[in-house]
Design brief:
The chain is α+β, with helices and mostly antiparallel strands. It has 5 helices and 7 strands, in the order E-E-E-H-E-E-H-E-E-H-H-H. It has a 5-stranded mixed β-sheet with strand order 1-4-5-2-3. Strands 6-7 form a two-stranded antiparallel ribbon. A hairpin with a 2-residue loop joins strand 4 and strand 5. The longest helix has 9 residues. The N and C termini lie far apart (about 45 Å).
């Protein structure tokens, strides 16, 4: 199927927010969005309901459709109870701040108990650290380096990440998404 856009339409600027069958986002971190092509494919395969649309259209010789801005799955997907251990989720747990000096710049992973001393790459042993503090601590234990994390590392719950995430809304939030997200209520100082 060949698609044509209306003038001045950038396909990348039209992602669709993906909601579960209960109209909650599949995930907040990262926010569950699909490129416009995936949203149209899912709608054509009858896997989603189109909840809201952009004022933009894709066309082919035999097909025309407004781009979906919000879709909901027709089948409920059970949400995960524990968040995945990822770099982003560690930074989110630690509020995008070095756990040694508080800087938000140039964040890396730091193993509180260094891997060279048997430390594992787990929620309970990794914290966000700026590259300067990480290099300064090197492969020392906190007592050897005289550097302790502001908060001991821990495995966060999905709720912990949601609470922290309220402080860090995504760069792009389309107005049609606001009824399904909570960032619109926290953007005011």
């Amino acid at each position: 199927m060949m698609t044509h856009f209306q003038p001045n339409v950038s396909p990348g600027s039209c992602p669709a927010l993906v909601l579960n069958a209960d109209f909650r986002p599949l995930s907040y971190f990262p926010l569950s969005i699909w490129p416009w092509q995936e949203a149209i494919k899912a709608a054509c395969l009858d896997r989603v309901n189109v909840v809201s649309e952009y004022d933009r259209t894709v066309r082919s010789p035999s097909f025309e459709m407004r781009l979906p801005s919000v879709v909901s799955l027709k089948t409920f997907v059970k949400p995960t109870r524990t968040p995945a251990f990822t770099r982003f989720n560690v930074f989110l747990r630690d509020k995008f701040a070095c756990q040694y000096c508080g800087s938000p710049e140039d964040l890396t992973f730091d193993h509180v108990r260094p891997r060279s001393k048997g430390g594992l790459t787990t929620w309970d042993n990794v914290v966000a650290a700026c590259s300067t503090c990480n290099m300064r601590k090197a492969d020392k234990l906190p007592a050897e380096a005289l550097m302790w994390p502001a908060r001991p590392p821990f495995q966060p719950s999905v709720n912990d990440l949601h609470q922290n995430g309220r402080r860090f809304p995504p760069n792009h939030l389309h107005e049609s998404w606001m009824d399904y997200l909570y960032w619109d209520t926290i953007l005011d100082p």
